[in-house]
Amino acid sequence: MKVRKAVIIAAGRGTRFLPFTKSVPKEMLPLVDKPVIQYAVEEAAACGMELVVMVTTPEKAALEKYFARDTELERALQQAGKNDLLEKIRCLPDLANICFVHQKEQLGLGDAVLAARAVVGKEPFAVILPDDLFEEREGVLRKMLNAFQKYQGSVIALRKVNKEEVERYGLVKVEEMTGRICRVTDLVEKPKPADAPSDLAIMGRYILTPGIFEELAATPRGTGGEVQLTDALKRLLSRQDLYGYEIQGEYYDSGTIPGWIEATLALALNHPELGQKLRDHLLHLLP
Ligand code: UTP
Fold first, then answer.
1. Which range, of 79-83, 135-139, 261-265, averages the lowest pLDDT?
2. Where does residue 105 rank: exposed (0-12), middle (13-18), buried (19+ CB within 10 A)?
3. What DSSP string describes 108-162?
4. If you average pLDDT over residues 10-37, what whole number do you get?
5. Strand runs (DSSP E) across 129-260, as ranges?
6. Percent of the chain surpassing pLDDT 70
7. Distance, CA 77 to ligand 1 centroid (Å)?
8. Domains of the chain: which residue ranges?
9. CA of 207 to the centre of ligand 1 (A)
10. Number of neighbours of residue 201 by Cβ within 10 angstroms
11. Which residue puts its alpha carbon closest to atom 18 of ligand 1?
12. Which CA distances in Å does 108 have to 18, 39, 90, 134, 283?
């Protein structure tokens, strides 16, 4: 079955960016010339998703406003002859067909995915956590979609992490398969380094079968008092195969201040107009 819908999860509080996130969603933080959320929507569109389901909260209305048409602003830019800027805002509502659903209470990532159930229905779907950015960009999701078509089972993105990092992620146990694809045989959310089943951590891209919704609905709150997607995946594993796709190349967690700065620098250094100037400036600043 074809994957047609991508669920972008953006209902978290973003406390690591307080005080900024007191009034602005962290997904509106710019990465050079556009906000984090736009990268996620563009990735979904580039991978052929026909519908983007964005999970947010009423407090994060700025996300919805960003993708809505603003005819008054368009008129003002047109009258001022600022056609390049006009183009930049006019394209936003057409990037993808987006619908918004609210997570009623911030009960964790698993609960946020469950909030999309009515819109997704009984078909496989992609999940994108906009904080997680990869050098491979949409290549990650595209290859995961190919793996889903080939193996007809849920596929989760994995990446090797250091021992000190394992407590921040869901970790998996795997069996080798071919190339960057492996079979997942166990999962554990935020283990102590000594209990980690491997050094492979779950990253923010998933292709899921609709069976995950039943499992999420039956999953009790786990680590941190939240409904953990990792726990629901472990339940799903008892009745369906689960595959991992190992990401290589650089990874940035723009949901943390250091990760956001690193992502900004990497993107700016590769920017055709800004890159060289920034490189010169950084060399000037470095001792
Ligand atoms: P994080 O663990 O980064 O949490 O969520 P957070 O709330 O966004 O940020 P901090 O930790 O307070 O700084 C991982 C993903 O799950 C979503 C977030 O939006 C992010 O995409 N999430 C988390 C929800 O949608 N709802 C929740 O209740 C929790």
1. 135-139
2. exposed
3. -HHHHHHTTHHHH-SS-EEEE-TTEEETTTTHHHHHHHHHHHHH-SEEEEEEE--
4. 97
5. 132-134, 154-160, 170-176, 181-189, 200-208, 242-246, 251-253
6. 100
7. 35
8. 5-285
9. 19
10. 21
11. 12
12. 18, 22, 34, 23, 42
Structure tokens at 128: 């994108």
CATH architecture for residues 5-285:
Alpha-Beta Complex (3.90)
222: confidence class by pLDDT, cuts 50, 70, 90 = confident
- DSSP secondary-structure letter at 224? G
Q: Is the CB of 32 under 6 A from ligand 1?
A: no
SS3 86: helix
| Residues making up the chain, counted from first to last | 287
Q: Which two tokens stand for residue 168?
A: 């921040």
Q: Which residue has the tokens 């700065």?
A: 261
Q: Is 131 in the pocket of ligand 1 (CB under 6 A)?
A: yes
Cα of 155 vs centre of ligand 1, distance in Å, is 21
